Amino acid sequence: MAANVSVAIIGLGFVGLPLACLFSRKGYRIIGIDIDSDKTEQLLNKKSYLSDIEDQEIAEMVDSGRFTVTSDFRAVEGVNCIIICVPTPLHNREPDLSYITSVAKSIAPHLQPQQLIVLESSTYPGTTEQLVKPLVENSLLKVGENLFLGYSPERIDPGNKTISIEDIPKVVSGVTKECLKKVEQLYGSVFKRVVPVSSPGVAEFTKMLENSQRLINISFINEVNFLAKKLNINLWAVIEAAKTKPMGFTAYYPGVGIGGHCIPVDPFFLSWVGMREGVPLTMIQSAGLINEIMPHFIVSQVVQQLSKLQVQSDSAKIGVIGLTYKKDVNDIRESAALKVIELMANKQMLVSVYDPVYQGVIPHGVERFVLAPDSLAKFDVTLILVDHSNIPWDVVIQHSKCVIDTRNVTGHSEAKHIIHI
Predict the structure, then answer these.
(1) SS3 letters for 16-48?
(2) What is 6-198's CATH number, 2.60.40.420, 3.30.1330.10, 3.30.110.40, 3.40.50.720?
(3) At what angle do helices 282-308 and 266-276 cross, to 10 degrees?
(4) Whole-number Å distance between alpha carbons of 225 and 191
């Protein structure tokens, strides 16, 4: 299908850029569209801004002549397929679909007969048919007749080195049967398996369900950890023992809290719809509350340990390892580590941070430190919030006065100055 077929991918972030790389590798001509001039400039200079994509891959795409980038929506006039991968943020627990609306309005004047439009942005059931469809149709273009529209939720797992994007089964849907056929053909040519469903609503709900389940399970294990701490029981050891059961049990692990764009956001799209329909999803709401509590719990453990060390909180020096929301990913969106740092700063603690993956802007008043013996020795507490790969944890253990480990990366050590949370 790739021969002479061009695809416009709108939104070149953590979803759109990996998708562009995949389609390019499969031989498609790609036009990337993004209003962020910094992103387009870096791509034109053959540079990647995502930790999962190397500069070499961007260079190969650009040099192939099959990949161009622009901020001009008129570029969609010359393509066969348009894939929308723009953000869908949450404000005050209400969905913000302004980016989707803006894109749909921007491309509408430039649409051509027989084009396929696929929405990939995470959103609540009904968005594709009730919001996007009316915006892209006009007197000459009718969805299902000479314009085709579908929804396919992104399932990218940033930082996952074992499963490639094309190995993840792709859920696909269409507003009509002909629309679904077109979407299947497109994604079936690049993904190893497509999973067609009966409607965009089912596909939209699928993404909400997947991330709601993860929110609830991770929040549950974090809540259980409160009790484990009270009972002086290592929950990590409990989980390892429970994992030996060959059926029924799935391991989830405690941490600082849920971050990233999907898990802290998508479940509340579903919860919002539930409230609108008179079906309150109380488990999602409770899970969200636990997630909000976690940074406060972590800081309370730091304060408790400082008290044992006879160090005043307002003069304590804290070295934080990890700023991103997830291991080996340079994304700080909704990162619980940011909230932990904010809470410690509010208590007048002097916070420094080390993150080998994220090189962007850090919170005001916080300094970076170099992971070295002399730096670690200056901190009253070294707080591990993210378990990035290739960090010399033995150096951290050996040269820190006190280690508070929220990710169990020091679980192999029996050193008495390590506190596991």
Answers:
(1) HHHHHHHHHHCCCEEEEECCCHHHHHHHHCCCC
(2) 3.40.50.720
(3) 140
(4) 39
**CATH architecture group of domain 213-420:** 3-Layer(aba) Sandwich (3.40)
User: Could you confirm whether 81 is annotated as catalytic?
Assistant: no
> Distance (Å, rounded) from C-alpha 96 to C-alpha 121?
12
Q: What is the pLDDT averaged over residues 349-377?
A: 95
Q: Scan for tokens 């709401």, then name that residue.
A: 285
* CB within 8 Å of 36: residues ≥ 6 apart: 12
Which residue, among 42, 110, 44, 58, has the nearest Cα to 82 in the 3D structure? 110
- The answer on pLDDT for 1 being more than 80 is no
Handedness of CA 98, 100, 104, 106 (dihedral sign): positive
The DSSP bridge pattern shows strands 350-354 and 367-368 to be parallel
CB 64 within 8 A of CB 24: yes
How far is residue 346's CA from residue 342's CA, in Å, rounded to a whole number?
Answer: 6
State the amino acid at position 232 in one-letter form.
N
Structural domain spans, the chain:
6-198, 213-420
Sign of the Cα pseudo-torsion (35, 36, 42, 47, in order): negative
For the chain, the average pLDDT equals 95
How far, in Å, CA of 419 to CA of 411, rounded? 10
Cβ-contact 257, 339 below 8 angstroms? yes
Q: Give yes or no on whether 6-198 and 213-420 have one common fold.
A: yes
- Mean pLDDT, range 151-176, rounded to an integer: 94
pLDDT tens profile 127-145: 999 999 999 999 999 999 9
Residue of 81, 85, 179, 262 with catalytic role: 262
Evaluated on CA atoms 165, 84, 89, 200, the torsion sign reads negative
Question: How far apart are the C-alpha atoms of 149 and 144, rounded to whole Å?
Answer: 7
| pLDDT tens-digit readout, 257-308 | 999 888 999 999 999 999 999 999 999 999 999 999 999 999 999 999 999 9
Structure confidence at residue 261 (pLDDT): 83
Categorise residue 153: left if φ over 0, alpha if ψ from -120 to 50, beta otherwise: beta
